[in-house]
């Protein structure tokens, strides 16, 4: 009897020991009406390149810069989701997901497909990257999103429902209506808006809005938009990364520091406080941040327990959720949402931190991205005309490279140097493959029309991507050998174009014929090599002061090209006696008797003051306009962060500390080249600013080419170089800038439509991104400036447009 009682006691003890150590956490909770519902959205924000390259982030290379390994994230998240069917996760960046996917076994791929099908793993946003919204062109945004979405559709049969632009530094109207509503997204979420705007929205409970980004597409352009109350990380005290962890919930009575009640109270307090700034009783907690979930169980273990104990407590209801589930709950709540128009630029996160410097950061890279983007358009059209060959040269590599170049630390110019080089390398690899395709397609099309005749087949079509430094060996070589050069010009746009084409040559007596054999007027302009410090050499050489045999010219002629088609022109050596291209008349302002120099062969003329070497007037003889117009340069000295507020001007932030005019230091203020096709006015302001203004005979606009840099910073002061075009237009503080190259938005200096602006940074706070152009106008005139890459700009003075062309800030701070 005694013995059996003892046995029973031992058994009892064993049973109760087992019960207290094992808890089956109940995480099945759905939405509970009438309670505050806390939607826990597990996520990892994985930059497709920033401090490390995209591949270094993926494999976890160069971890001394930043401990981040995306394959750890995806591996551990997948296994945590497979462990508990109630857990959810969203994944955003397809550039990373693709890298991971192709390394998995068929068996695991099948299980992951089930996770996607059941909604445990949801693709959100779904482009190759989380693109920037200030500096990309909308075509590139569509392309990079399409690439990711097509992949998700092909592999998983799904289409993302939600826009998740949590990190970009300001938000564009095009994002709302084109990459949001028109794309079929039900909602859009992000974190970064102006700190003044956020404070007001929290007070007024207007962090969640219906955003109507387009002025013309009214009903179809609306999208439910949620702005997070602070950032895209969890509320304080709920971070559970393995090496950055808030107090874990300790629910084992056999261990010390049991804290379930305390942690539940913390949870309820954080939920109530957020609900206080949110309409409806649904709130979202973004459970994750940059490169988190390296060891996913560290997060899921805590969330499992929180959901279990919080729901047992019952004051609020917690659930695993996704932005789609959250959106559906908001929709079902039948609330009226405030309307938001226009966009969310510029973005400041505190009084001296306007993130408007990156509109211009790395301008050469921004230019390269834009050029590759148009080349991709051409290559795709030609690929289609000839027929796609997926094993031969195609546009896939260029498409991939361009897609990740739209990332918010890529084209934005905010990445580290070795990362910038990595993006450029990828673009270059893509270009080389696309170039092969373009050459063979154009040769195929041209030959099929026998433009050169069977006796002269096109053997080799070469392209000249470095025309920006007048580098084109084929054109120089062929013509110097006395052979003819066939120039094929392709027009990817849907309308006929008449453009002046310029080709570097190194012979003088040339003649241009069109494909029907008709002679075309042409002009030779001496090459001035603005990328080298000996650039004046060529002008002087032309003026007869330099050794012979080194002459080099631009051959310019006017080409006419049909829509989505090409034209061919033949350049050959002229007979000694016959007609040939006109050599430009070159004069300098030095010793010029006229105080005014007039340039322009057509109805547009520009007048320059010879002594001062600057533009003074604009004349259009067709529209009978004569107007004052001046162009100047200046620079902002960057705040170096030694102020009371240690915010320095950096890759992102523009914080000027002073503004200084840049006067011309050149002894020869102007060099003017004139001829039948175009006039050029060259100005070398100093050893690092060179400018060419071009006026084409048949056009009513002037074209300006800037060559700026290296910016001298040996005085220890960072500089941001600007140019101003000043007119007498009465513009009443108003100017217009485009949204991602698509439509124009009205801007008013020192003013925001949504709130009473407190002006802290009168320059930086009035800068806006310019992708396509900026204009000012009054009752009688308009001044428009179109750009060939994205830059920052403003109108800080009535009648004036200012563009920031280049910047070199010290120290180079990554925020
Ligand atoms: C788990 O929680 C859900 C909702 O909170 C509830 O309906 C269900 O009965 C619970 N299951 C168990 C086993 O407690
Ligand atoms: C690691 O980063 C440094 C820059 O901090 C760079 O110089 C180096 O090349 C990187 N390593 C690799 C393998 O890219
Ligand atoms: C709710 O917000 C109001 C004002 O916005 C504030 O005074 C109050 O303290 C807040 N309550 C909680 C619980 O956060
Ligand atoms: C596709 O490209 C490959 C590699 O260049 C070539 O061998 C093949 O003939 C091409 N196919 C077609 C249909 O042109
Ligand atoms: C010319 O263009 C190439 C890219 O195509 C760029 O890398 C280079 O910096 C440019 N050079 C100048 C002087 O603008
Ligand atoms: C212009 O200068 C660059 C860099 O100095 C050089 O690579 C290029 O060949 C030069 N072009 C001409 C036409 O001399
Ligand atoms: C001076 O300028 C006027 C007006 O542009 C022009 O008609 C005249 O030919 C110029 N004279 C010289 C010497 O360039
Ligand atoms: C601002 O510029 C002045 C010189 O103009 C310099 O003395 C000062 O250190 C600068 N301040 C900061 C914070 O950059
Ligand atoms: C200038 O703009 C303001 C609004 O920004 C407007 O109230 C005012 O009438 C305008 N003035 C003129 C002269 O157009």
TrEMBL record:
GO molecular function, one term: carbohydrate binding
Alphabetic keyword roster: Disulfide bond, Glycoprotein, Glycosidase, Hydrolase, Metal-binding, Signal, Zinc
Cofactor entry: Zn(2+)
Gene3D superfamilies per UniProt: Glycoside hydrolase 38, N terminal domain, Glycoside hydrolase family 38, central domain, Golgi alpha-mannosidase II, Golgi alpha-mannosidase II, domain 4
CDD domains: GH38N_AMII_LAM_like
Alphabetical list of SMART domains matching this protein: Alpha-mann_mid
Cofactor, how bound (note): Binds 1 zinc ion per subunit.
Protein name: Alpha-mannosidase
Species this protein is from: Vitis rotundifolia (Muscadine grape)
